[in-house]
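Example 457.
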Amino acid sequence: MLITGATLADGRVRDVRIGDDGRIDAVAEGLGADAGERVLEARGRHLLPGAVDVHVHFREPGGSHKETWTSGSKSAAAGGVTTVVDQPNTSPPTVDGDAFDGKAALAADSLVDYGINGGVTPDWDPESLFERPLFALGEVFLADSTGDMGIDGDLFADALDAAAARDVPVTVHAEDATLFDESALDGDLGGSGTAATADAWSAYRTADAEIAAVERALAAAADRDARVHVAHTSTPEAVDAVVEAREDGAGESDGDGAGTDAAPRVTCEVTPHHLYLSRERARSLGTFGRMNPPLRSESRREALFARLAEGDVDVVATDHAPHTVEEKRTGLVDAPSGVPGVETLYPLLLESVRKGELSLERVRDVVAANPAETFGLDRKGRVAEGRDADLVLVDTADPREIEAAALHSAPAWTPFEGLRGVFPEVTLVRGEVVYERDPATGAASFGDPVGRNVRES
Ligand SMILES: NC(=O)N[C@@H](CC(=O)O)C(=O)O
Ligand SMILES: [Zn+2]
Ligand SMILES: [Zn+2]
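Predicted structure in complex with N-carbamoyl-L-aspartate:
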């Protein structure tokens, strides 16, 4: 296939040829089409690397009433996400080799490439997990969230040791439950849609609980020269702690080469919901705005966004955590935590580019280049010769209103309803069209499940 006249994130206008092996053959000017070659005319539109969303919960096995690999990966493809990394809080949890194999068999339904993380619980089996083509350890829960997989500091230390010995990165859900404010949940919280319920969750799972847990995780990682990726940092303070830890550790090596990798030793991730929603919005979302870590104050949200714009945030990943409408409606204490987001990641960020709040290169870096580099995916994350042809074609001047009804995740709701997003027209995974939207009618069509485990090739 030849893509002609596409504008790249840095503004260059180029033709891109994709080889039969699904890799980018050439990025150049004036490439002529070969006989019989499919040509995709891209003049006036941007060609971006497919996003690498290192944090999704596709719910299988055990939660297919919430989402499946099919529905989740369709949602990813329609949002320009070409690689997803699934988290271990499924049922059974992905904490041993057998559970890994069971999930890997289900992931064969995926339209996009994927990684499968291994979890840590008191009965995890590191030996059998590490024998598998594991993406990373994580998310390792330092406090309970969906799936109740919270562990103590000793087990976390063991997990860091096991991972560091193999130079495997560890993704951490950092909250300290001893610093939650139980009193926030006292009294009459009203129904699921009320302001009291939504705001109470933010008051309960305090910012201090996240900041303290992030600092402790970074200290434990530094002691062991472990590679730690802090998931869903929701506070500017936590981002600053990661930046500081990275600066402290720069250039350090324990002499065995483990500290000299190109990838940074500690990185942080921020979600779209913490970048675009705050407690102000939570008041109208009710329990649909409940997630862990929770939405923060508008001033913290602004400070988090500023850190993204300035380059302190390494990765934006979605923590796509679908639950059904019925489950979310059960009231503050019983409703599960989590919001969907894999389909609106690129659209929300591209709308910020359109409005002049972020550069397109920054967006490309945080959704594609940086996550690929952080997790050692040499063939993902860039529009460059030799890389996989995981590509997104988008008209960056054409925003539309985000409506749950037009999205493809199984639970038909989104916390971003009514915001604007710039959605892809075409998404390719290793040169195969997995998603196409007719610009005239808006009709979506999907390709075959071509997804592969990115740790197997
Ligand atoms: N973020 C959430 O609120 N929920 C996630 C789990 C998690 O990432 O903590 C889920 O799996 O539902
Ligand atoms: Zn989490
Ligand atoms: Zn998560």
